[in-house]
Each structure stands twice: as C-alpha cells, then as structure tokens.
Amino acid sequence: MRLANLKNRAVLLTSDDQGLDIHEASGGKFGPNVADIYKNWSEFTAWASNVKEAGNISIDQAQLGAPSPEPEQIFAIGLNYQAHQKEAGYKVTTELPPVFTKWRSSLTGPNTEVTLPDRGNVDWECELVVIIGVGGRNIAPENAWQHVAGLTIGQDLSERKRQQFGQAPQYSLGKSFGGFAPIGPWLVTPDQFADPNSIKLGSDIDGMPQQNGTTKDMICPVPQLLEFLSKIIEFRPGDIIFTGTPAGVGMGQDPKRFLKPGENLRSWIEGIGEINTTFRAGKPAESGVPADN
Q1: How far is the C-alpha of 248 from the C-alpha of 157, rounded, in Å?
Q2: Residues 6 or more apart whose Cβ sits within 8 Å of residue 228
Q3: How far is CA 167 from the centre of its chain?
Q4: Centroid of chain to Cα 187
Q5: For residues 277 and 153, what is the distance between their CA atoms, to the nearest angstrom?
Q6: What span, in angstroms and rounded, lies between the C-alpha atoms of 102 and 83?
Q7: From the centroid of its chain, how far is CA 177?
Q8: What whole-number distance in Å separates Cα of residue 265 and Cα of residue 255?
Q9: With contact defined as beta carbons under 8 Å apart, do 219 and 78 qualify?
C-alpha cells in the first residue's frame, strides 16, 4: 500500500499517477487529513486492504506534501553506516549511533526549493525514513515492523558550520533550517519490500552520482533503532525517524563539496521512488548580523 498527501488530503495510490481520496472512498470514516490516518492506523489498514476501486484522482508529484505532515516527534540518527563514520573522520565502531532531532518547522514535501543559509556549507544525506503507525514503549525488535506504518525517502540537509558551532556540536540547529527535512513522495508499507532490512538508496546532484548504498549496511537496523529509542521515549503515531545515511556526502570529499544555488539534488530509494530538492541563494547578511538565514 502507498499513502500520499495530496494538497493536504490523504490519498491511497492505485498507480504512480492515480489514487483515491480516502475520506470520500471510506464514506468519511478516515481522513481527510493525513495526520488523522495514523491515529487509527490498524483500523485504516484493514479497510485499505479490501479496497478494490480504481483510482479517480490524478497524482501530480509537484502537489504532494510530506506523507506525515504533523509528527509529534522527529528523530534522526547519525553515523549509522560504518563507511559514513569513516568519511566523517570518526573512529569506525559498531556502538549505538548518536541521536538528535530535526525541528518540525524544517519538514517539507518531496519536491521543494530551499534557501541556502549564508554560511554556505550545506551538505546532503539521503536517508530511509520510518513513519510510525502504532506507538508504544519498550518495543521488542522481533515486533518492531508491526509498529511501522511505512517507509519513505528523506534528505537530512545539514549546515555543517552551524552543526559544529560553539563549544559543543549543535546538530539539531544545523539540520533544521527551513526546508531541511524534505520527505516523500509517499509512504510505502513494509510488506511491499522483499526485505525491508535491505533496501538500496542514493543521491545525485545535477545527474552526477554522490551516494549509492544499502540499508543492510546499517550499524543499527530499523528494528534495533525502535528497540533502542523506545526504551527511553514513547513513540506516537505519525512520528518520523531519519535512520542515517550511507557514504558519499560532501563533507567527506576531498576537497569538501557543498550545495550551490541552482543545483538539483535527487534522492532515490529502491521500491519507493525519488524526491528532488533545488537550491537558491539566501540574502546577504547585514553587517553585525549573524550569517544565518
């Protein structure tokens, strides 16, 4: 099953370019807002599994929003692939990775334009994103996929100078400028993958490949992430987890390479599709004003 957010209405996809308005098709039982779907996820999926209608709404990806637009919590996982640990200059380890948040105001849909902060060191990180369907605490890894509504594509955009600013790193701030959390184009339920623990993903800039990895190389796979996090926090329906990025980011190149105005960043994940982010220059900082937009 694939679930999309089309102009703030929940849509069940029947093909890449056709879908059903869920609120209308269910006689008002579910929707119309996508966020409401997650609150009744088990009941909704039971209904959706029996839908036989053909799609009657055209899907324009330019009009799609984030497939979970109102998460209570957004988690992000750093250094969750060993090759990325190495390119980032860290000691390669299999220890549990660091966790931070991306603020909800940075969340956006799958096709968006982002203003580059004046510091100009914006990096890319293509990531598999987990959307929670059934919340809870103390989730056992063998039951973890039962709590996952589905998977989507995300970009953990990062302003590296702000991320490392000050005496201690500012991961959440450096990764939460406007538009720094594009996700989409839609949610795909785990049963649609031959192996949800082994999915190819990557990115390119203006057609030039940058990342090409697989989630089977994660240090802490999705079931273990849910187990680890749920020992501390309580997951809520609609919550989002950016699960980490494979190697190939700009900071790891020699010389370092960051995003520039006018460039297009394409991020793709096997079995889901792709999202596209373009970039424009920010306004020059005034004298005496910190160089952040």
Answers
A1: 13
A2: 96, 220
A3: 29
A4: 10
A5: 12
A6: 23
A7: 15
A8: 19
A9: no
Q: List, for residues 63-87, the tens digit of each pLDDT value.
A: 999 999 999 999 999 999 999 998 9
Residue-wise DSSP of the chain: -EEEEETTEEEEEEETTEEEEHHHHTTTSS-SSHHHHHHTHHHHHHHHTT--PPP-EE--GGGB--SS-S-S-EEEE-S-BHHHHHHTTPPP--SPPPEEE--GGGEE-SEEEEEEPTT--EE--EEEEEEESS-BSS--GGGGGGGEEEEEEEE--EEHHHHT-SSS--HHHHT-STT-EEEEEEEE-GGGSS-TT--EEEEEETTEEEEEEEGGGBSS-HHHHHHHHHTTS-B-TT-EEE----S--GGGSSS-----TT-EEEEEETTTEEEEEEEEEPPPPPTTS-S--
From the number of C-beta atoms within 10 Å of its C-beta (0-12, 13-18, 19+), residue 228 rates as: middle
pLDDT digits (tens, 9 = 90+) for 221-241: 999 999 999 999 999 999 999
Nearest one of 266, 108, 272, 112 to 186, comparing CA atoms: 272
Check: CB of residue 142 under 8 Å from CB of residue 71: no
Distance CA 56, CA 75 (A): 35
Q: And the tokens for 114? A: 């982002």
For 143-190, write each residue's pLDDT tens digit: 999 999 999 999 999 999 988 877 777 789 999 999 999 999 999 999
